[in-house]
Amino acid sequence: MIKPFNVKKATSQLASLVSVLVLSACQNAETLVEDKKVEPIKKPNFVWLVSEDNSKKYLRLYNPKGAAMPNIEALAEQGLVFNNALSNSPVCSTARTTLALGAYPARLAMEYHRPYQRISLSEGITTVSEYLSQAGYHTTNNHKEDYNFIEPEGHWFKSEKGADWQDRQEGQPFFHMQSWNTTHEHKLHFPASDVEKKPTKNNPASVDLASIYPDTPLFRYTHARYLDQHEKVDQEIGVVIDKLKAEGLLEDTFIFYFGDHGGVMPGSKGYAFERGLNTPLVVRVPENFRHLLHDDLQAKTETRVDGFVSFIDFAPTLLKLAGIEEVAGHDGEAFLGKDISLAKLNSRDSHFAFADRFDEKYDMVRTVRKGKYKYMRHYLPFNPDGLFANYRYKQAAFRQWRDLFNEGKLTPQQAAFFETKPVEALYNLELDGLETNNLADDPAHQAILESMRRQLTDKLQQLPDLGFYPEYHLVKHAQNDPVLFGQQHQAEIAQLTEIANLQLLDYGLAKNKLKLALLSDNEWQRYWGLNAALAFGEQAIELKALLTQIKDNDTNALNQARAIQYLALFDAQPAQQALTDVIANTTDTAQVLALLNIATQLHDVNGETFDIPFRKAWQKPGKELTDPLEIWRQRTIHTWFKARVTYLKS
How far apart, in Å, are the Cα atoms of 225 and each of 67, 189, 391, 399, 451? Predict the structure, then answer.
């Protein structure tokens, strides 16, 4: 194992100099060993071609009713098609953070989409582009980054619009990443009137509309329009492939095409269902480097792979193919290499995923897969998936879905998205790809349920998963070194997971431990006790006096708000003034965002409204700011708060 160079002290000029020196040594050194000339080792190029927000089901390559994408299909004809390529997170910034680091963001305080503050990289953690740069690669990105961490200096030689491999030294290997927003969510932010005014190329009547959606002209049109976007992005990707061909680089370059996570019909992006996680992945294997793969993966025709590949595995795979040692900071393992046969690859059948704050909407979901079974744990089950989030509801189909729910016009399967969730769920994905038939209460599946439940708890405690602390706390205490924070708090996190798991017991078995948690001197034990009480609902009403004491006296505003939430939902106590006062007395902006999520849940579930004054701290950034990333961050925060306080008044 190797540890990364201290990249925070490096400069882009030094990185470039190192690359040139390494390359020069590879190109010009001719070593005589026993009177025989040894040629420099040639390394493969890597290109990542990334379409945004799309699940695999939208491609004809995976679904007969998917979009025709001839350029991607041509790559597949000379490479590998992965049927189970899985993001570890269903949204951009957390997924791209995973790709870059080869590590789980949930153990790095980077699990929140668009973090309130970007997190420092702990020692032993850096980007795949940094490792490749140190090994002499020319690294470029065109141009989306969207990382949840503070970037190391010079890990990309160039990261901007139009960046490509042209500026490399002669013969220098390169790693190029390019993203297209042609399939991004915002492409479906059109007015409902487009159904009549702007016909689609793909026929809405023929689309493979999922049964979780209402079968309306708007939903069918939205699906068809998204297929049209796939055909457009295929043409755009084809330009890059043609460029590699024209420059004679195609047979020296591993080309990876994939989506950055699933999506983007309503209820997919941002949610830890397979429709939010299962992406297309095609790897074209170049003729000149087929020898780097196992013999049974060197075929020049399309090879289908059923084994599981996760985003944490991408970085280790590039390092292995580039001949770079494994690194200690990676959580994943390579899925391509001379020692990885098709049989070995197909034996991989495990996956871990997470979903936390998604823009301004908070949640905490963890999932594990083992073969055909998927276990899903909802740690905040009282938050419906359909809880209002401004950017989601810019889709006309999303708004129609909610309206039909409010009108009582949905089937139970379609309505589930807007209702409280089960604490845990078990799905057989071979029979239930849409994850609608929860087997958790089925006696025939209790053994697999208990096994996967234990697998998940073990995983969270081993990482450890920092999501058991609220984001605002991590910003204060884990931002500078999240790995060290996790090590120092691993025992406490294990305790918090056990308190959270009280939700899984019958109330009669859980209530004594629940009382102890609510009476604890530890604010986070009280917090998870409150979440458990909310999950039990009316069963926990006997704890009313204790919950009232927390509402009135707890030193943690988030705990006060949770108690207010419980008493409003299950004791009919009005929450408006009490929660407004808690918010007014809270100065931590990141903490206020979590409090506003509680208000939103009470708005959507209980019909309560809140008049929250808009604060100066939530305003758009002023002209005095010059850092583009900081301007973008503050604009994002402004948008979240403006949308929340406006919605809560309605």
Answer: 10, 11, 19, 17, 42
Residue 413 has a CB neighbour count (10 Å cut-off) of: 14
**Cis before 582 (ω within 30):** no
Task: Tell me if 254 sits within 8 A of 297, measured CB to CB.
Answer: no
Residues 6+ apart with CB under 8 A from 199: none
With b meaning 16 or more CB within 10 Å and e meaning fewer, what string describes 62-93? eeeebbebebbbebbebbbbbbbbbbbbbbbb
Are 72 and 101 in contact, with CB atoms under 8 Å apart? no
From the CB of residue 30, how many other CB atoms can be counted at a distance below 10 Å? Answer: 9
Would you state the pLDDT for residue 599?
98
Provide the 3-class DSSP secondary structure of residue 150. coil
Question: What does the alpha-carbon distance between residue 276 and residue 417 come to, in Å, rounded to a whole number?
Answer: 14
pLDDT of residue 581: 98
Tens-digit pLDDT profile for residues 332-378 = 999 999 999 999 999 999 999 999 999 999 999 999 999 999 999 99
Q: Residues with Cβ < 8 Å from 493, sequence gap 6 or more?
A: 460, 461, 464, 465, 466, 468, 486
Residues in the chain: 650
Task: Decide: 312 and 97 in contact? Cβ < 8 Å.
Answer: no
First-to-last C-alpha distance (Å) of the chain: 56
Q: What integer best gives the mean pLDDT of the chain?
A: 94
Q: Which tens digits make up the pLDDT trace of 136-177?
A: 999 999 999 999 999 999 999 999 999 999 999 999 999 999
Quote the longest CA-to-CA distance of the chain: 90
Q: Do residues 413 and 436 touch, judged by C-beta distance below 8 A?
A: yes
pLDDT digits (tens, 9 = 90+) for 199-242: 999 999 999 999 999 999 999 999 999 999 999 999 999 999 99
Q: Is the dihedral of CA 318, 93, 106, 535 positive or negative?
A: negative
Q: In 3D, which of 160, 166, 163, 171 has the Cα closest to residue 136?
A: 171
pLDDT classification of 315: cutoffs 50, 70, 90: very high
